[in-house]
Amino acid sequence: MTFPCEHSLSGHRPPGSFRDPSGYVFWREDRVFRAVSEDCLQIIGRLREAGLLSQLARGQMIVATEVVEDNALCQTLAAEHAGYDHFLEHEPLPAITYPYEWSVSMLADAGVHTIDLQLQLLESGYSLKDATAYNVQFVHGRPVFIDLGSIEQPQRLDIWFALGQFTQMFTLPLLLCRHYGWDPRSYFLANLGGRTVQQALRGLGWFGRWRPRVLWDVTLPALLTGWSDRRARPRQDRVERRKTDTTSQVFNLRRLRRKIRKLSAGYSPRGVWSQYTRLCGYDEHAENAKKALVAEFLESTRPRRVLDLGCNTGDYSRLAAGCGAEVLALDSDHDTIEVLYRQLRKAPASITPMVADLCNPSPGIGYLNRERAPFLGRVEADCVLALALAHHLLISGNLPATAVRDLMLEMTRRDLVLEFVPRGDQMFQRLMRFRVDLFGDWTLPNCRHLFTQRFELLRESPVPGTNRTLLFLRRRDCPLAE
How far apart (Å, rounded) are the C-alpha atoms in residues 447 and 443? Predict the structure, then answer.
């Protein structure tokens, strides 16, 4: 696996740069660059001359990329990054998420995207030298490949050397999610590079490993490991004839593509919060009134980036996107994000869905804990939507009210839309079932007092037909607050 420091593509300065033989990514003056080796530049140059680079970018297969040809800029960058004389410039991405923050269908689509890119590259004699899921990001609900240093012109096209890694990063986790109750977070967070087929076999048991769904891609590869080194060597002339024949690789890639699609389609969201819209108790009039109040605020403030916390199936994320914002839609319930992502497949919008728990967000992991940036190191928003969320953090997350306030302060650079849900609300009472009521001081005046210690209250609006209230707040240390 390479360490291209992918999180810097989002426009956030990374805590460190990671080098590999092909180069690395860095951030400079609101622009994203990749330092590349001479060999990598030659590959990119041939792709550009053949028109394949622009074709892949137009088709949204790869992140839009240009070779830096300004001599003065190249000299400046070379002076700052010793050992590199060649640079690419990438289009910044709205947000960076990692496989342990994806839903099942997101992981499946990233795998299909990797296969589709490999098939297109094969047609021109190129290939991907690795198949890590971290080389894919999501833009407006669509996967895009970001690590151009992974493209090579291999000596052999009859086999894909990255197939084993593809199995670990896509096939195995999807099998475990679909049939054995795993989710991407439980698979990837403790196994940055995925699990081996041998590890997977141990978890499947003796009878499980012979099931048809795992036999071809898990059991047989595990059994054949080592045997390939002991087998009789084929005649050299036969090897030479096979080197440029892509038939077997294309056949297997298409088979894998169908399998991944089937695994994704067979997953049925069942999480209780994926049904929140039906259960929350709002009638149509109250819901429309609430949306009108939030939309009016977003239209008047025009945030560039919005963070929708506890987004459920994304109604307010789409509202914010309709107001021109880039939206990061976050929920701790995997199945709500799965439902939202499936909707984005049909109706793309400027929304990046993400599975994350605010009480236990993704940490910095990998080399020096900086190879994959922590959640709070990748999140920045002009406006945070915290609609019907604070009481969840109080009750289910066991956070004190001051911690809820400070968490919101950490994640917004400017505005916060907070929905206050009182103790008498049916959803509050539902969360309180079988719990001791320790929230007697959770009242609107106390909530208002607590948050206005760090925020200025711009407006307060009751939600018609409910006992809930919307608080429109702005950070006191924000220059626009004056």
Answer: 6
For the sheet containing 455-462, what is the strand order? 351-355, 326-331, 305-309, 381-386, 412-420, 469-475, 455-462
- Using DSSP's 3-state secondary structure scheme, residue 275 falls into helix
> Model-level pTM greater than 0.70?
yes
Residue 440 carries which side chain, given as an amino acid letter? Answer: G
Helix (H) or strand (E) holding 301: helix 284-301
Strand stretches in 84-189, DSSP E: 86-90, 127-128, 136-139, 142-145, 151-152
- Which residue ranges in the chain fall short of pLDDT 70? 1-22, 201-203, 205-210, 212-217, 219-220, 222-242, 271-282, 479-482
> What span, in angstroms and rounded, lies between the C-alpha atoms of 362 and 189?
8
- In the chain, the domains with their CATH numbers are 6-194+245-265 (1.10.510), 272-481 (3.40.50.150)
What is the tens place of the pLDDT at every residue in 48-99? 999 999 999 999 999 999 999 999 999 999 999 988 999 999 999 989 999 9
232: left (phi over 0), alpha (psi -120 to 50) or beta: beta
Q: Of 16, 23, 55, give the one whose Cα is nearest residue 38.
A: 23
Tokens 């269908």 sit on residue: 105
Contacts of 143 (CB under 8 A, 6+ apart): 106, 109, 110, 112, 113, 136, 137
Write out pLDDT tens, residues 89-137.
Answer: 999 998 999 999 999 999 999 999 999 999 999 999 999 999 999 999 9
Token code pair at residue 221: 């590869």
Backbone region of residue 292 per phi and psi (left: phi > 0; alpha: psi in -120 to 50; beta: other values):
alpha
